[in-house]
Amino acid sequence: MVISPAGHGARGRRSLGIETVPAWSAGGFQALRDRKHAPVDILLGFTPWISWGMLASHGIWAFAVAFAVAGVLFARQVRRGRVKAMEIASSAYFGAQLILTGVIGWHGLEAYNLVLLYGALAAMAWTTLLLGSPFTLQYAREDWARELWGQPLFRRTNVILTVAWGVIFLGASMSVALPVRDASRPVWLYGVLLPHVGTAFGLALSLLVPHVYPRWRLTRQLAAAAGPAWQVPAFPAARPEDPRAHDVVVVGAGIGGLSAAGLLAQRGLKVLVLDHHYLAGGFCTSWPRSVRRGSRRDTYVFDGGVHDVSGLGPNGPVRWLLRRLGLEGRLEWRHMGHEYVLPDVRIKVPRSVIDYQGLLAERYPAEANAVRAFFAEMESVYRELYQDVPQTGGTPFRPFTEMLDRFVRGASLKRVLSVLTGYLTDTPGALTATGMAPIFGYYFDGGYYPVGGSQALADELVGSIEAHGGEVRLRTPVCRIVVEGGRAVGVELDQGKIERASAVISNATCGGPIWSWSEEHTCSRSWCGRSNRYIRRRRPSASISAWTTSPTSSRSRW
């Protein structure tokens, strides 16, 4: 098992119904923007129609010029291999008009030219919707990165835009028809102003909707998935004097619970940590066992899971936590090396990431540039991810396998670069690039192991909690979280004892015996239903079964 500052064991890209933005850095849609001329391209698509409008009084010549302009645009798109519905509709419409008026000499529909023009555009928009390829989507694909094209939100945004244009075109066709059917209707209003206002409105939507709608949609989905709003409790100025009253009760003495408790205790709150185990630390525990070999007694330290700790770089969250709690100098860390034994390759990883890139480039010379480009991209994600750790603690969007496919072709090299995915999941396709970036921190900033085993880290956190007046109580199982008036007010221990608190933090296993409290008391049925379905779909993680043993003498625990 690995302690990673971003232990997001993401098993799917829609874990609780949230559409993830497929970016590997935090910029989301905007970070993947390639160009900014979709509205300009749409306006260019209107050029044949604008040309006809400017020359409408010249009869057949207006259709000829419009058809010529449409032909130029059509040929341009054919050369680029991206023929769009707008160019097809323009060429077909003006070609048909040119044949009817210029070749056949029929002018029976001349009074309805504007009606037919906007009607043809409306038919084009609605037809592309019926065929499942909204015409604005064709422009958007030239303006946004390929990684977004298959996203439901990307498609939905363009469906909205195409529907808007379809309504605008249909409305304009009906508007220009009014003066034709009723001469009392002013042409300047119904035949000129309203259609042009509608077109300007459509262009404005093409500029705003791709930026506003996805953000609004994702905000709503995140709010729905987050469940009921959590109000920060108002802690009293004085610490509770009752031995069974606390500011905060933390259920579970894993590293997450101990870290939260340590930070809260440091701020002067009365904190109680409860855990059913006899050791604090969760999977970050270790214990010695001695074996007598004749007159010599050897001691081995068995670790509950951790054998490598990342996040100890200059801005790493583990480094920040230890520094914040004043524990940075109390632990001795040893650098851990990696060696990968795969079916077709065996690699001993150098300590320097530059040397590692050189080794991979030498072993896979055809992809030397791809190796360096991949590591450069991943390091930029990694550094960006942790640059604001002192302010936010670090926040972790695109599948890691997609990012890997973009750079690397060979299957063997892909296996080498994916070997660390086992730290987080047994389903690499479920990992995002930002979820994987902290694991690559083993290459960029190194991986370390504390002298004395991972229990040393847990013990230091316990010591920090107790040094600030907090309490860590082991061998104390929690039966349930006590809820009164729709909020958590404490926990119930076995034998019915109650420990009250202004706030309760659960670091317990999801789906454990205390999980049912939320569904019964405070959470909406839809949110709890999604959460519980997600928990039931969990699959075992390979990292839980990893063990580390290290022989020690009676005087040293390394």
In short:
This protein is an alpha/beta fold and 558 residues long. The protein has 20 helices and 15 strands.
Annotation keywords:
elongated; FAD/NAD(P)-binding domain; 3-stranded antiparallel β-sheet; alpha/beta; 15 strands; disordered C terminus; disordered N terminus; 3 domains; 6-stranded mixed β-sheet; 20 helices; 48% helix; single chain; 558 residues
Net shape: elongated
Q: Any low-confidence stretches, pLDDT <50, length ≥5?
A: 1-37, 542-558
User: SS-based structural class?
Assistant: alpha/beta
Biggest beta-sheet profile: 6 strands, mixed
Q: What count of domains describes the coordinates?
A: 3
Number of continuous helical runs: 20
E-strand count: 15
Strand content: 5-15%
Radius of gyration of CA atoms, rounded to a whole number: 32 Å
Helix content: 40-55%
Largest sheet, spatial ordering of strands: 11-3-2-14-13-12
Overall average pLDDT? 80
> What is the first-to-last residue Cα distance?
18 Å
Describe the SSE topology.
Elements: E1 2-3, H1 28-31, H2 38-45, H3 47-54, H4 60-80, H5 85-104, H6 113-130, H7 135-143, H8 152-181, H9 187-225, E2 245-251, H10 255-266, E3 271-274, E4 286-293, E5 296-303, E6 308-309, H11 317-324, E7 333-335, E8 338-342, E9 345-349, H12 353-363, H13 368-386, H14 389-392, H15 400-407, H16 411-417, H17 433-444, E10 448-450, H18 455-467, E11 471-473, E12 478-484, E13 487-493, E14 498-506, H19 516-521, H20 525-536, E15 548-552
Parallel strand pairs: 1-6, 2-3, 2-14, 3-11
Antiparallel strand pairs: 4-5, 5-15, 7-10, 8-9, 12-13, 13-14
Helix pairs in contact: 2-7, 2-9, 3-4, 4-5, 5-6, 6-8, 7-8, 8-9, 10-18, 12-13, 13-17
